[in-house]
TrEMBL record:
It holds the Pfam family ATP-synt_ab. This is V-type ATP synthase beta chain. NCBIfam families: PRK04196.1 (NF003235). It comes from Candidatus Jeotgalibaca merdavium. PROSITE patterns: ATPASE_ALPHA_BETA.
Amino acid sequence: MLKEYRSVSEIAGPLIVVEGVEGIKYDELVEIRTTSGELRRGQVLEVNEDKAVVQVFEGTSDLSAEDSKIRFLGNSLTLGVSPDILGRVFNGLGNPIDGGAKIIPDKRLDVNGEAINPMARDFPDEFIQTGISAIDHLNTLVRGQKLPIFSASGLPHNEMAAQIARQATVSGEEENFAIVFAGIGIPYEESEFFVEEFRKTGALDHSVLFLNLANDPAIERIATPRIALTAAEYLAFEKGMHVLVIMTDMTNYCEALREISAARREIPGRRGYPGYLYTNLATLYERAGRLVGKEGSVTQIPILTMPDDDKTHPIPDLTGYITEGQIILSRDLYKKNIMPPVDVLPSLSRLKDKGTGEGKTRKDHSATMNQIYAAYADGKSAKELSIILGESALSEIDRKFAHFADRFESEYLNQGFDTNRSIEETLDLGWQLLASLPKEELSRIKSEYIDEYLPTEKESDE
């Protein structure tokens, strides 16, 4: 029989402290009945002897320490799952908000999943096509990888997230591919943008959306990515689907962690974030991967906005340590109206070599990737030199590289948010750009690839 407690001793921010408790467990769900009869939910955050610290999902406004009634339910937060979750929109706690019928679950899963055991991991090595050249060719995403996007305030990361959700696919597995989208602390206008984008393009049919709004309690943000990953793991490892999880904005998640940490009066770490921020983020990111003997996979693209455009801020800094690379958006490219504004030189996918090559993309993928990186870097250097010394100080080859850099940005990077390029189209475009350079400068490409793929000067100008 469940006991009811009326021994709330303290209310601080989203937390309440209940005294005189017995047999309470960490992460246990809690019901709080207010003086007006309203029922709120919470979760045990800490247990110390006969005291329990409870985080209240709906917030503690209008709660009275003297009159609130507390019941500990004996189980942790769960998500009801079935194949019917595909095509549905839920709030941050997994309740339907699209006007559809309630989900009749096949089972209920604890949302506090665990990181994949390294011994059970299968190595990520299968190409995922996003339709974005700067990712597919230069920072390749593979199945089971976690590859974050580092953005900043005002940059079009939402449009890029919607584009990836519309276009991403695994070759030959189009019918077995799913998107799980988690909006964490996003404004109402952004949530409507995502829902509308998914609906009008038909992507909603193979997607599951979890939307936690900016005016929802901060404590709900802690649960939203865990609920989304639980749905992804169910579809991947029980239904054999290839699932891409897009989570935006992880900065809002970390801010919620900081708020709760402050309410618990914990000793702050860097910039006021809790000392366990790295560990907490790892519990989310390490749920991506492939399992030996399982067909499905969970691939993650977390999106975060860097405060003050600072890559050394704790959120992008720690995220970069955990994940296998990062895609960085550039404010300078955005000001030039280049969309999506992917800054390819500091971006990195540490698993790109595992998902490319003959049988996966094309045999010339790796060579052209290296050559384009080198040529673009040389072109940027030449352009910087011309700013200092003047264009007349550049050699003829410097001018060619500077011209290559301009064409690379305007023709290759600037594809817009509605263009879906296949990897073959992207590779061919790369060859057209490389044709503007002298053959002797293509030192990173095998001569047989140059003979087979390099277009003539006339073809490259068309």
